[in-house]
Amino acid sequence: MALDDLVAALPDYAGDLGANLRSVIGRSPLPRPRLWGTVLACAVAVRSPPVLRALGPQAREELTPAEYTAAKAAASAMAMTNVFHRGRHLLSDPAYVTLRAGLRTNVLGHPGVDRIDHETWALAVSAVHGCGACLDAHERALRRAGVEREAVQEAFRIAAVIQAAGTTLDAEAVLGD
């Protein structure tokens, strides 16, 4: 029902976006916890109130309390590390990569949930934030764990569509056309 509400809230010009939301969430091949943790982590990363209000309660129903908390923790940790690593990556001086980060990220090492789920959530949030270094790191971890490229791509398909929904709904709230 929350997905239907989100699709219904989209303006007519975003019909493809509604179809894509139904596809990436409603017909995803990802296991339920991986799917809904990805949806929640991306909704948090996108920071769109209409998206969070629509998808957050359904994610809470679909996930265990530990998974729900871990997906939010992944979004929180990646909000920090994506900015940090993207910043280092964009600097022309490669010596910054050799410096100690000095940031606490215990949740990344001990997420309290299935490692593949957590890596998928981190990858999707990294896609939202546009951090190539983090995308590469989480993609490598998933591939080493035996995850197929199609499943990796599914995570950033979800990220792309949730990002677009948030952008569209937030713009409509301001423009009110």
Annotation keywords:
single chain, 177 residues, mainly alpha, AhpD-like, 9 helices, 76% helix, globular
Q: How many individual domains?
A: 1
Q: Specify the CATH class.
A: Mainly Alpha
Q: Which percent band covers the strand fraction?
A: under 5%
Number of strands: 0
The mean pLDDT is 94
Short description:
The protein is mainly α. Helix content is 76%, strand content 0%. The two termini are 26 Å apart.
Describe this protein's structure:
- With 177 residues, the protein is mainly α.
- The chain has a single domain, classed as AhpD-like (Up-down Bundle), CATH 1.20.1290.10.
- The chain is 76% helix and 0% strand.
- The protein has nine helices and no strands.
- The chain has helices at 2-9, 15-26, 32-46, 49-62, 65-90, 106-109, 115-129, 132-144, 149-175.
- α1 packs antiparallel against α2 (15-26), α5 (65-90) packs across α7 and α7 (115-129) runs antiparallel to α8.
- The longest helix has 27 residues, at 149-175.
- 40% of the residues are buried.
- The mean pLDDT is 94.
